[in-house]
Amino acid sequence: MLANVQDNPLGNKPVGGKTSLAGVQDKIVLARTVDGWNRVIDGYPSTHILKPEPRDHPTAIYDEEYGSRFARAVGLAEFDTWIEEFDGTAAVVIERYDRSPDTATRIHQEDFNQALGAGGDQKYQKFSGRVGMARIAGVLSSIADRASMDRLLRMTTLAVAVGNLDMHAKNISLLHRPDGSATLAPAYDVVPQTHQPNDGEMALAVDHEYRHQAITRAHLVAEGRTWGLSDVERIVDDTLATVRELAATESPHPAAYPNLAADIARFAANLAEGRAVGDS
Questions:
Q1: Rounded to 5 degrees, what are φ and ψ at 128?
Q2: Is 27 within 8 Å of 21 (Cβ atoms)?
Q3: Residues 109 and 97 sit within 8 Å (Cβ to Cβ)
């Protein structure tokens, strides 16, 4: 299935109806039980997402695995992410967080394209203006728990510090709990991308600045303050300190982009010391 994703998108061709979990990168979904990996049939809840190594960007899955470590370190994720080889085909394996502890029940997730009534490429702020960090924060402040706002600022700081340019409105979500309450979903698709061919811009502006290399700590602080947060500087500084520590102590997978740890260490140091993130 990993070698022929397009033949069976997501590896989950249903008996009836349609499947979902769209995205640019090829992926399949499986359910893991005590007996091992299982194909999910006709809508049975999957437990893991698997992405094979993409031909055009061979380091991407290894870069994503490294990015996921930072998300866990700063308290934005608890689910496991690892690299595994299946009969010679490497994949990044991502545990699903939108499942109940017994994995048999889905927890409703709503991405911010849905929450803000945006569609398609409107997930990028420049394309429509329908989405943006302030609008996302506004939704969280009105319907989610108080801790969600703090986590959103940590998520934004992390995206800048590791170069996750593609943190768009479909890559930020709400989790709706069974009791009717809502919270910011864990960080996912945390992929360092500044070394890939792209325009070098953030999907969502930080204090009106799209250019990743130009963003500073002051932009992050100003962005958080516009949301009404009071402890902004501590949140930003604590996040950057954790990123710097992990970049200095943990190496990415050998197949990741060779300068990944050094780039992230430089980005985080520049931000912490008041310089633009891209300064040499």
A1: -150, -25
A2: yes
A3: no
DSSP structure class, residue 185: P
Other CB atoms within 10 A of residue 67 CB: 26
* Phi and psi at residue 133, to the nearest 5°: -60, -40
> By three-state DSSP, how is residue 13 classified?
coil
Q: Is residue 84 within 8 Å of 255, Cβ to Cβ?
A: no
Question: Of 164, 170, 155, which Cα lies nearest the Cα of 198?
Answer: 164
The number of angstroms, rounded, from the C-alpha of 26 to the middle of its chain's C-alpha atoms is 16
The answer to whether 5 and 27 are in contact (CB under 8 A) is yes
CB of 78 closer than 8 Å to CB of 43: no
Judged by DSSP in three states, 105 sits in: coil
5 within 8 A of 15, measured Cβ to Cβ: no
Which residues make Cβ contacts (< 8 Å) with residue 43, sequence separation at least 6?
A: 14, 17
Q: What is the pLDDT along the chain (280 residues), one digit of tens a residue?
A: 898 887 765 655 444 433 344 455 789 999 999 999 999 888 889 999 999 998 889 999 999 999 999 999 999 999 999 999 999 999 999 999 999 877 668 899 999 999 999 987 799 999 888 999 999 999 999 999 989 999 999 999 999 999 999 999 999 999 998 889 999 999 999 999 999 999 999 999 999 999 999 999 999 999 999 999 999 999 999 999 999 999 999 999 999 999 999 999 999 999 999 999 999 8
Q: Please tell me the pTM assigned to this model.
A: 0.93
